[in-house]
Amino acid sequence: MVLSPRLSAVVDALPLGPDMRVLEIGCGTGAAARAVAARLGAGHILAIDRSAKAVAQTEAASAAEIAAGRMSVRRAAIEDFEPRPGEGPFDLVYAIRVGALDGRHPEAGREALARIAAVLAPGGRVFIDGGDPLREVPV
Question: For 100-127, how does the pLDDT look when each residue is reduced to its tens digit (9 = 90+)?
Answer without folding.
Answer: 787 777 888 889 999 999 999 999 999 9
